[in-house]
């Protein structure tokens, strides 16, 4: 058997004394753990920019929360997101991103994510909908999504929405200190979803974010402790578990001409919440609060 090859993502700065952080990361790397490249560590200036993008993104979602109601179309939500973002000097990142035609994602019931806003999709009592917004401000990105329940929904759907929220919070709690692994987050989320009889989507994941829409690392919401990338202070990333009522299997909706909408295989409902986080010396800070 070949020895596991060490991936040398983390390198010391030439000519400089290694810092405490360098030494700590190098210890992990020498033990074969996957460490970030230095470019994933944001500068204080970048963090400030991402924080400001996060504040605007939160205001966008608050505006949606204020105005969302039964009888509205998902295109109405798109308009709210687009107009509010632009009015406050931001750019909605989804618009024209790899062919995505709208300014946010609206994913109802069995739509897992990347639902495309449409005049034809009308919110009805009992629907559960995820609105996912990503805002660019001064070149920096912040990404978050929330679930909204239209009127009153079934106990089962409400439980799904609540457990998906708990999964996000559990992932967050794993990150209450730095030098944890992406697999630690996934493992904790998976356990909670399964304990409640739900499943975790595997084909889509969270991601680094901040200077671009999607950066390394992938943040999977399932997996084994101690695997995946080490999360160190200065990294910014999302956690965004997609939790399914039935099977974890998903597919691309054939009816979507843009090739974006993801649907559960069994057409049972799915729920998701998302925040952008900054890892600090004392654990994560939510940048999309
Ligand atoms: N906001 C989604 C995420 O959490 C990505 C949407 S890509 C889009 O990663 F093009 F559909 F907007
Ligand atoms: Co995201
Ligand atoms: Co998102």
Rounded mean pLDDT is: 98
Radius of gyration: 19 Å
- The CATH topology assignment is Creatine Amidinohydrolase
Classified by CATH, the class is: Alpha Beta
Give the biggest sheet. 4 strands, antiparallel
| Poorly predicted tracts of residues | none
Number of helices: 5
Number of DSSP-assigned strands: 17
Judging by the overall fold, what is the CATH architecture? Alpha-Beta Complex
Q: How many domains is the backbone divided into?
A: 1
**SSE string:** HHHEEEEEHEHEEEEEEEEEEE
The share of residues in extended strands comes to 15-25%
* Assembly type: single chain
Ions, cofactors and other bound molecules: 2-amino-4-trifluoromethylsulfanyl-butyric acid, cobalt (II) ion
Under CATH, the homologous superfamily reads Creatinase/methionine aminopeptidase superfamily
Distance between the termini: 48 Å
Shape: globular
Structural class: alpha+beta
The helix fraction, in percent, is 25-40%
Describe the SSE topology.
Blueprint: H1 20-30, H2 44-67, H3 74-87, E1 91-92, E2 105-108, E3 111-113, E4 128-137, E5 140-149, H4 155-174, E6 180-181, H5 182-195, E7 199-200, E8 206-208, E9 215-219, E10 230-231, E11 236-239, E12 242-244, E13 250-252, E14 262-264, E15 270-272, E16 275-280, E17 283-286
Antiparallel strand pairs: 1-4, 2-4, 3-14, 4-5, 6-10, 7-12, 8-9, 11-16, 12-15, 13-14, 16-17
Helix pairs in contact: 2-3, 4-5
Describe the model:
- The structure is a single chain.
- Helices cover 29% and strands 24% of the residues.
- It has 289 residues and is α+β, with helices and mostly antiparallel strands.
- The strands form 6 sheets. Strands 1, 2, 4 and 5 form a 4-stranded antiparallel sheet that branches.
- Helix 2 (44-67) packs across helix 3.
- It starts with 19 loop residues before the first helix and ends with a strand.
- 2-amino-4-trifluoromethylsulfanyl-butyric acid is lined by residues 94, 97, 100, 105, 114, 132, 134, 143, 238, 240, 260, 274.
- 2-amino-4-trifluoromethylsulfanyl-butyric acid binds at residues 94, 97, 100, 105, 114, 132, 134, 143, 238, 240, 260, 274.
């Amino acid at each position: 058997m070949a020895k596991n090859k060490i991936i040398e993502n983390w390198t010391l700065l030439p000519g400089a004394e290694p810092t405490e952080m360098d030494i700590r990361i190098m210890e992990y790397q020498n033990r074969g753990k996957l460490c970030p490249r230095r470019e994933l560590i944001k500068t204080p200036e970048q963090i400030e920019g991402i924080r400001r993008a996060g504040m605007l993104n939160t205001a966008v979602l608050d505006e949606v929360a204020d105005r969302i109601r039964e009888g509205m179309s998902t295109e109405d939500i798109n308009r709210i997101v687009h107009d509010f973002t632009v009015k406050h000097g931001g750019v909605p990142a989804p618009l024209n991103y790899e062919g995505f035609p709208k300014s946010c994602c609206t994913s109802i019931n069995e739509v897992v994510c990347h639902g495309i806003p449409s005049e034809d999709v009308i919110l009805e009592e009992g629907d559960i909908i995820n609105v996912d917004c990503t805002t660019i401000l001064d070149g920096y990105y912040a990404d978050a999504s929330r679930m909204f329940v239209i009127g009153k929904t079934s106990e089962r759907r409400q439980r799904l929405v609540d457990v998906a929220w708990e999964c996000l919070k559990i992932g967050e709690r794993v990150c209450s200190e730095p030098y944890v692994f992406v697999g630690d987050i996934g493992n904790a989320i998976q356990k909670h979803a399964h304990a409640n009889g739900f499943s975790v989507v595997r084909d889509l994941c969270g991601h680094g974010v901040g200077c671009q829409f999607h950066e390394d690392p992938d943040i999977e919401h399932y997996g084994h402790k101690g695997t995946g990338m080490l999360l160190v202070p200065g990294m910014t990333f999302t956690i965004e578990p997609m939790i399914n009522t039935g099977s974890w299997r998903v597919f691309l909706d054939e009816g979507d001409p843009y090739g974006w909408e993801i649907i559960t295989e069994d057409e049972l409902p799915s729920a998701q919440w998302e925040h952008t986080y900054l890892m600090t010396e004392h654990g994560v800070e939510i940048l999309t609060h």
